[in-house]
Write a structure and sequence with these properties.
By secondary structure, the chain is α/β, with parallel strands linked by helices. It contains 12 helices and 9 strands. The strands form 2 sheets. Strands 1, 2, 3, 4, 5 and 6 form a 6-stranded parallel beta sheet that branches. Strands 7-8-9 form a 3-stranded parallel beta sheet.
Length: 303
């Protein structure tokens, strides 16, 4: 199996437990991921809603320091170019993409985006569930979209070629991104509102917009978003996205180490069972390979 996962929070586990991405003990680590034929992983520096200002900036830097440290491991390769991706596959290394989950890491300063670019951050989720300086998450009491600062952040991210991730953003903020942006954007770990009406999930119109822009939607394994913790529920979300013409849009964004999983979903190792069930249930080898790997690979290799 080849695996390309658009979102995990394993850097937070490493910070909490003082461990390495090589052997982190919870849902995911490089050693387990590299049991696959090819392995690319987006590692997100998650900024909790409790942190703002300098606290958010400094915490985010600590998480990115862990990513920088472990990028030097012999089994890892930081991905900045298509050539890096090819090397990661040829040398059977974990292709590491650095990301940020929560624009609070900027501390309200556009200049922080230049630091993130220098640190090889490839994508950033604008909010988490609450409000920050950029706008409002899907659980914020404020239903307005991006702030003036948030809109300037989106424009500057496109100039710096840092991808915009709209997972967790509220509906008004999503459409602000759609109206401002000129490049493809992603929802790295989101599911379908039509399959399960949850505030974190995407409406059909949102999914269609991402698809039409040439972006990606990574399906996650969060039980609340799925409706229940089962592969059958996952299939319902996937099947719905496929009815929207999403054959080349769907990917995996499992949210390992960022959500609770039942014991029978033992982190990254459970994906081989998911692959088998999807094939057995008639989704087709090409569709499953696109979901697990090829769509995300094609997206990033062609940036």
């Amino acid at each position: 199996m080849r695996l390309f996962d658009l979102h995990c929070d394993t850097l937070s586990i490493c910070e909490q437990l003082n461990c390495s991405l090589l052997d982190a003990p919870n849902h995911l680590n490089m050693t387990r991921g590299l049991q696959n034929e090819a392995y690319f992983q987006v590692f997100a520096a998650f900024i909790p809603d409790e942190l703002r200002g300098d606290d958010a900036v400094n915490y985010g830097r600590r998480l990115l320091d862990i990513a920088d440290r472990d990028a030097a491991l012999p089994c890892a390769r930081t991905i900045n170019t298509a050539a890096d991706m090819l090397t990661a596959v040829q040398e059977h290394r974990c292709g590491m993409f650095k990301a940020v989950e929560g624009g609070a890491i900027l501390g309200g300063s556009l200049a922080m985006l230049d630091e993130l670019k220098a640190r090889q951050v490839r994508l950033m989720t604008l909010t988490w569930n609450g409000a920050n300086e950029l706008g409002n998450g899907c659980f914020s009491a404020d239903t307005s979209g991006l702030t003036a600062f948030g809109k300037s952040v989106v424009c500057r991210m496109e100039e710096l070629e840092i991808l915009v991730d709209v997972s967790h953003l509220n509906v008004a903020g999503f459409w602000d991104v759609a109206n401002i942006s000129h490049k493809p954007f992603l929802a790295t770990h989101s599911l379908s509102m039509a399959a399960n009406a949850h505030p974190r999930n995407l409406t059909d119109a949102q999914f269609d917009c991402i698809r039409e822009r040439g972006g990606l939607v990574g399906l996650n394994l969060c039980a609340a978003h799925l409706g229940e913790a089962s592969f059958a529920a996952f299939e319902r979300h996937l099947a719905h996205f496929l009815t929207r013409g999403g054959e080349k849009t769907v990917a995996l964004g499992c949210d390992f180490d960022g959500t609770d999983l039942p014991p029978y979903w033992n982190g990254v190792d459970a994906l081989s069972a998911l692959e088998t069930q999807l094939i057995n249930d008639g989704f087709g080898r090409e569709t499953v390979d696109r979901l697990f790997y090829q769509n995300a690979y094609d997206f990033f290799v062609n940036l």
